[in-house]
Amino acid sequence: MNIVVAMKQIPDLQQIRIRNREPVLDGVPATLGLIDKNALEAAVLLKEEQGGKVIVLSAGNEEVEETVKEALAAGADEGFLILDDELEGADGGVKARVLAEAIKKIDDVGLILFGEGSGDNYSGQVGSRVAELLDLPQVGYASKIEINDNGAVITRSLEDGEEIIETSLPVVVSVLGDINEPRIPSVTQILKAGKKPKEVLELEDLELNLTGLPEIKTLSNLAPETDRKQVKISTVEELIKALKTEGVI
Amino acid sequence: MAVLIYSATPGLALELITAARRIDEAIIAVSINDDSMAAALREAGARTIKINHPQLLIGDTRALAAALKQVADREQTETVFLSSDRRGKELAGRLAQAMGAGCLTDVAAVNLDAGKIECQRNALGGATIATQYVEGAQVIALRPRSYEAAGAGNGSLEEMQAEIKESGLKVVDYKPKAGDRVNIEAAEILVAVGQGLSDEEKLADVQTLAAKLGGEVACSKPVATDKKWLSEERVIGLSGKKCKPQLALLFGISGQVQFTVGIRDARVIAAVNTDENAAINYMADYIMQADLHDVINELNQKL
């Protein structure tokens, strides 16, 4: 049984600067979503127990080929990439179609893992869309995944409780950021990552019709205006006085 | 455009009625296997469709999306509002795909403008707020507590049969969350700590301060996820809670956007930090450059 981990290339959020309320993305390096790394770690742990392969799946512009090395170093066995400049900034509906079509080309897939949300958009819809496109069961917000002879037992962690789900395979699962602690690859693993097998396709290889889908239009995307007072306080007495004047304590 | 609304949580479904009224008076509310929720939706003025089906499990997102799509098809509506809690977000993408719709989740506000439903949501990890709309059929998931629950009205109630396919998924158990059941989103005062807090034992002083102020203790993500000093329930931020307290007292928090997105709606923010250039200082009303442990001790003595 193979495990597919879908990972999204995003701009390194720590390095985004705001100028005149506009985000400046020029020169910001690409990385993989933080929670996607938890999904990868979950896959690698299951593989170490069960065997099979971990295949990292990613769709985006040509930089993805470089970005994904991080995942190959951290335990993925193979890469499956769909590279096309048209995919840069594509919305969840388009990405899901591309990923679902790619998954159909991968043999013996038992689990398809996502992070519960991407680092940049945090919309959390692509995994659910892929599950629908492939007509598979899904479990979101997983805090535990166990594979047994009949399928999988997965804990879905909700706001007020935990739901234990038994499901057949294949299944689409999105994991929580606290499901595990992703490993940090060693220098040797990083050096070897470039040599791991990768299948690289272009969008046209998938023969998808991506026209006529509903589109997300963005009217504006600005940093919120902050009109905080930014008053410097030097003593605790002053702080107490200020908060009393505000009427909040 | 009639708006179809659904949430598995009754209180959130009532909030969706308020949000949907900003778009259209024609609201179709769906309740699944929950007669008391169906009654509450009707009493809040919605035309309510109740689906009771033993094989339709709320935990089976495939079946849930299939049932809601059947309602949308029958009612010929292309606009669905869901709650952006975990169940709602998981459902949103699936239902959108089933309906051939576009989808926006974690939406904090909706406005109708020239036939378009303009949605505000965080983007780029919270660094920006985007105003977006979907061209075509749409599934919009609204953040809990973005709108008040709808008051009383004159609704109606009808039943509908849904066709549910055999599923390979079973919900075998549900365990209510034990232990920490705090709701920091409802707190008027938050005392939040970040990685500047030196050790776990110092949390007792933070708790004392929160108790003195009648508030709750909260934290940045690493304090819960990496250090495990506090529960995930208390995390403020993009993948944690979005809070709007009257006062946020922030100790030892540097102010990365993934954190600030969860607290920037606070009325008053005071930040205590040793770093005079910490990003948090630009979004605080009161800034104190000091050792947080000393400040907490002194506050505990003087309050």
What count of helical segments of chain A does DSSP give? 7
CATH topology of the largest domain in chain B: Rossmann fold
> What is the string of helix and strand elements of chain A?
EEEEEHEHHEHEHEEEEHEEEH
CATH architecture call of the largest domain in chain B: 3-Layer(aba) Sandwich
* The top level CATH class name of the largest domain in chain B: Alpha Beta
Please render the helix and strand layout as text.
The complex is a heterodimer of chains A (249) and B (303).
Chain A: E1 2-6, E2 9-11, E3 17-19, E4 22-24, E5 30-32, H1 34-50, E6 54-60, H2 64-67, H3 69-73, E7 78-83, H4 92-104, E8 109-115, H5 126-133, E9 138-148, E10 151-157, E11 161-167, E12 171-175, H6 187-193, E13 198-201, E14 215-222, E15 231-233, H7 236-246
Parallel strand pairs in A: 1-6, 1-8, 6-7, 7-13, 8-12, 9-12
Antiparallel strand pairs in A: 2-5, 3-4, 9-10, 10-11
Chain B: E1 3-6, H1 10-21, E2 27-32, H2 35-43, E3 47-51, H3 61-75, E4 79-83, H4 86-99, E5 102-113, E6 116-123, E7 128-135, E8 138-142, E9 156-159, E10 169-176, E11 189-193, H5 203-213, E12 216-219, H6 221-225, E13 247-251, H7 257-260, E14 268-273, E15 286-289, H8 292-302
Parallel strand pairs in B: 1-2, 1-4, 2-3, 3-9, 4-8, 5-8, 11-12, 11-13, 13-14, 14-15
Antiparallel strand pairs in B: 5-6, 6-7
Helix pairs in contact in B: 3-4, 5-8
